[in-house]
Write a structure and sequence with these properties.
The chain has about 950 residues and is mainly beta. Helices cover about 5% and strands about 45% of the residues. The protein is built from three helices and 86 strands. It comes from Hymenobacter cyanobacteriorum. This is T9SS type A sorting domain-containing protein.
């Protein structure tokens, strides 16, 4: 869980150091990480003396920390440009005054206020990450972003919105059927559902929770149906329900045990099932079943599993799908002969005799994978292009009598259809398509049953194929190989809301090639990569985009001659690295400085690197560059260099002489952290990761993590260095591709071990959250494709999924708090906290939690003892785990009826963008200032006394003051 230290704990450490006149003790000795949030860009906080190796993060927005100390910027013990307390004991007085005033709210061992509940995932690699205010920008090679709903999800049948409460399988779902009580039986290749062991078959109840039904199949479940109080299961298994059953079984729906009398003993996989009356129809790849020779298709007695003697269609190739209507069995597959007649891949058989119905012969020219029958129409899906005597791509509606294609139904799917379900006048289709029914639909669609046109309101978008669909009670269960459904197309660049994890609808730059680098400055997102079009305009390898809309800025077009790999923004300058030879209208080899507004290359900066620049970091007037070069800035510099930010000339004193490529650089205080593929740097043996003195380039003796493979990305927060790459051992411990290291010693932190399944390429840290991008499909013990947000302390996603939290006035004297969870793990209690100012919270009640549960839960608490004289109140939940760690929910605000009029501001907390202030005089000037009194924005109230406060892009999280005349109100920005 994300932990933040109590401010008094850290303050005491520094106070002790001040008294002793020596180094501040490392804050980790308090058992908690840093209290005051992330530092200003490129800056750290250090103790008065001797604390270069024990720097702790400080954010200028943290009111408590700002009151604790008075600062100066200079060449202090933490290096040039570092923030550090002025010498002497005066800063201790500030600390004591702050403590006495009660201005240091505790933050003991807490989780991030914005944990990873519903952070979207991708369908491909994430190469670059930046969090700016309330937005997380991601770049890479993906074409889709969506909720983390791997392999199976229940969708609203009208809107396509996924039910995020549902427990999630850890492997492909290949079969699903309604359970008759609002839930579903699902089958496939998974071994867990919702974190519970369920081998290839499970039941979800109406809330999406896993039931006790646990037949434990030993191989894939490929087909399911329910009839007469029995669950019939087909697949590739040989054991299920506690008994030996070869590929077909009948299970008790309550216990999951195999029914003793039903044992057909199929000798090949069962792919399809349908039940009518007392008969079970079976299709697949078998040649023997129910005690008889049956090629690919059979009818079995429902009670005994014996093959019915009179039904022997004798198909000549596998049967993929079955549907029964009236006295007819419709069969789709790969056959060309069945029921005693030539039938190409689709046939109608007499349900009693198995003979082909003479008049029905659609003759598909390729495989049929899915069937559904409704009224007088047979809907068929597959990978054909001609069926029923007409051209039909992958999906057709056929007349139930003669098999002729219905003229008006032409969805024209551009790729195979593998799943169908019909409800009312709607045909639900799943498969591999991206266009169907005259619209873009990613692998799932709802079509008008008469016209085949896509219904506008249903567009869930899956990031990989949908294999199965089932319909019941206004819901559609979709299963497949997808890891997300309910998202949106985003080509290689997306913006996600940091609070909800959802893609911002207005930001869709649609890059036509890989995005490899991102940087944000002044309301602009700078993107670099291998694209030629982005943001609606031609842009070669680099672009500046509006941070809100994703539209390319017309005035910025540097037109790099080749790939851009690294970006850094400082003031009005964008530093660009890559393997180009021309950019910004000038010859520039691999590294350039561009005017941030015009994109024109700055004439004075021309380092002329002789090979690729892959990494950039800017601090204190210095540009640190890493890559594959051996000369840069007019000097010999092997793979890493420090350049004057104005002239591009190599600084003479910094020459670490790495012996191989440097891929990433991060600067914190007086230290440059370098990652790559080297094994010697800064005059010392250092395998792939090193800490260098920012002035001399000499490797710091105490930091030697000794990674056993490439380090691709770094992020520094407080006293922790987060590293990602391809390593499996680092900091003296086994760590698969991601680790948290002590910034002073390089030792791996014991509690952080997310265990990424493949390469980690990008990292960003904000508050208590570590954002991770790469090529993985599992991290933190859960399925995650390409992107994850992890607890900065533990490296795991939030154990409790909070799906709702509301605070509403209940009359004039009470507030009702209500919240819901989708799942809980080791959850002990919810403490409800209240505040009158949005900053100092106190507990008002405790509600016991569910412990560990995959079931949706709802909770309530009534606050009936409200303080007097306040216009509004703030509430938050503190979710406490059994190990004592805890997390905070987002804050909710309630306006109290009949309260005295005064200044109010909403939303509060704000998440960037705008906030609205009410209750002032018409025409009054409203000023927002930070904790140091520096103006942030101003606005003028309208005739109703309302002012819109436009918060600048990138406004740091923290506490601000909105003032109108003599009155003021606090505004919290998250």
């Amino acid at each position: 869980m994300v932990a933040l230290a109590a401010a008094p704990c850290r303050a005491a450490a520094f106070l002790a150091a001040g008294k002793a006149g020596g180094a501040a003790p490392a804050y980790r000795k308090c058992g908690r990480p840093a209290a005051c949030g992330p530092p200003p860009a490129g800056q750290t906080f250090a103790a008065p003396s001797g604390a270069a190796g024990a720097a702790a993060a400080l954010a200028p927005h943290d009111f408590a920390c700002l009151l604790m100390m008075r600062f100066r910027i200079g060449s202090g013990p933490a290096g040039p440009g570092a923030w550090w307390p002025a010498a002497g004991a005066g800063w201790c007085v500030w600390l004591l005054l702050a403590l006495a005033a009660g201005l240091l709210p505790g933050r003991a061992a807490a989780q991030a206020p914005l944990p990873d509940r519903q952070l979207y995932v991708t369908n491909g690699p994430v190469n670059a990450l930046v969090r700016d205010g309330s937005t997380v920008y991601i770049g890479g090679s993906f074409t889709y972003v969506g909720p983390n709903t791997p392999y199976g999800s229940a969708l609203d049948g009208g809107t396509g919105v996924p039910d995020l409460r549902a427990a999630r399988p850890n492997g492909t779902v290949r079969a699903a059927v309604p359970d008759g009580a609002g839930g579903w039986y699902i089958g496939g290749d998974f071994t867990q559902v919702g974190g519970l062991a369920r081998s290839r078959i499970a039941q979800l109840d109406a809330t999406g929770a896993v039931t006790s039904f646990d037949p434990n199949a030993n191989s894939s479940v490929l087909a399911l149906t329910v009839a007469g109080g029995t669950v019939y299961v087909g697949g590739g298994f040989t054991s299920i329900g506690g008994a030996a059953r070869n590929r077909l079984a009948a299970l008790d729906p309550a216990t999951g045990l195999a029914l003793a009398g039903f044992d057909p003993n199929a000798n090949g996989s069962v792919l399809a099932l349908a039940v009518a009356g007392g008969t079970v129809y079976v299709g697949g790849a078998f040649t023997s079943i129910g005690g008889a020779v049956r090629n690919w298709i059979a009818a079995l007695e429902a009670a005994t599993g014996l093959a019915l003697a009179g039904f022997d269609p004798n198909a000549n190739n596998p049967v993929n799908t079955l549907a029964v209507a009236g006295g007819t069995v419709y069969v789709g597959g790969q056959f060309t002969n069945i029921g005693g007649a030539t039938r190409n891949r689709l046939a109608a058989l007499d349900a009693a005799t198995g003979l082909a119905v003479a008049g029905f012969n659609p003759s598909a020219n390729s495989n049929v994978a899915a069937l559904a029958v409704a009224g007088g129409t047979v809907y068929a899906g597959g990978d054909f292009s001609n069926i029923g005597g007409a051209a039909r791509n992958n999906l057709a509606a056929l007349n139930v009598t003669d098999g002729r294609a219905v003229a008006g139904f032409k969805p024209n799917a551009n790729n195979p259809v593998s799943a169908l379900a019909v409800a009312g006048g709607t045909v639900y289709a799943g498969g591999q398509f991206t266009s169907i029914g005259g619209a873009t639909r990613l692998r799932i669609a709802a079509l008008d049953a008469g016209t085949g046109l896509a219904l506008a309101g249903f567009d869930p978008s899956a990031n990989n194929p949908v294999n199965v669909l089932a319909v019941a009670g206004g819901a559609v269960y979709a299963g497949g190989t997808f890891t997300s459904i309910g998202g949106a197309a985003r080509n290689r660049l997306a913006a996600l809301d940091a609070a909800t994890g959802v893609a911002r609808a207005g930001f869709d730059p649609n890059a036509n090639g890989t995005v490899s680098a991102l940087a944000v400055g002044g309301g602009t997102v700078y993107a670099g990569g291998a694209f030629t079009s982005i943001g609606g305009l031609p842009r070669r390898c680099i672009a500046a985009l509006d941070a809100g809309t994703g539209v390319a800025l017309a005035g910025f077009d540097p037109n790099a001659s080749s790939t851009v790999s690294a970006l850094a923004v400082a003031g009005g300058t964008v530093y660009v690295g890559g393997n180009f030879t021309a950019i910004g209208g000038a010859t520039r080899n691999q590294l350039a400085a561009l005017d941030a507004g015009t994109g024109v290359a700055l004439a004075s900066f021309d380092p002329n690197a002789n090979n690729t620049v892959s990494a950039l970091a800017v601090a204190g007037g210095v540009v640190y560059a890493g890559g594959a070069f051996t000369t840069i800035g007019g000097a010999v510099r092997n793979y890493v260099a420090a350049l004057d930010a104005g002239t591009g000339v190599a600084l003479a004193g910094f020459n670490p002489k790495a012996n191989s490529n440097v891929y990433v650089l991060a600067v914190a205080g007086g230290t440059v952290y370098a990652g790559g593929f080297f094994n010697n740097i800064g005059g010392a043996a250092r395998n792939r990761l090193a800490a260098l003195d920012a002035g001399t380039g000499v490797a710091l003796a105490g930091f030697n993590p000794n990674a056993n493979n490439t380090v691709n990305t770094l992020a520094v927060a407080g006293g922790t260095v987060y590293a990602g790459g391809d390593f499996t051992n680092i900091g003296g411990a086994g760590r698969n591709r991601i680790a948290a290291l002590d910034a002073g010693t390089g030792v791996a932190l014991a509690g952080f071990d997310p265990n990424a399944s493949s390469t980690v390429s990008a990292l960003a840290v904000a508050g208590g959250t570590v954002y991770v991008g790469g090529q993985f499909n599992n991290i933190g013990g859960q399925p995650r494709i390409g992107l994850a947000a992890l607890n900065a302390l533990t490296g795991v996603p939030l154990p409790v999924e909070l799906t709702a939290f509301t605070a509403t006035a209940n009359g004039a004297n009470a507030v009702r708090l209500a919240w819901a969870t989708a799942s809980e793990k080791n959850s002990q209690a919810f403490e409800v906290e209240r505040s009158a100012d949005g900053r100092a919270f106190a507990r008002i009640g405790t509600v016991a939690a569910a412990g560990s549960s995959s079931r949706a839960r709802r909770y309530e608490l009534l606050d009936g003892q409200l303080p007097t004289g306040v216009a509004f109140l703030y509430y938050r939940l503190k979710q406490v785990d059994t190990d004592g760690t805890f997390s905070y929910s987002p804050v909710r605000t309630v306006t109290l009826a009949g309260a005295a009029a005064g200044l109010t501001v909403y939303p509060n907390p704000a998440h960037g963008g705008t906030a609205t202030l009410t209750g002032t005089a018409p025409g009054a000037v409203v000023t927002v200032t930070d904790a140091l009194g520096r103006p942030v924005t101003t606005a003028t109230a309208d005739a109703s006394g309302t002012a819109t406060l436009a918060l600048p892009a990138g406004t740091p999280a923290g506490v601000y003051v909105a003032r109108a005349g003599a009155r003021a109100v606090r505004l919290t920005v998250e």
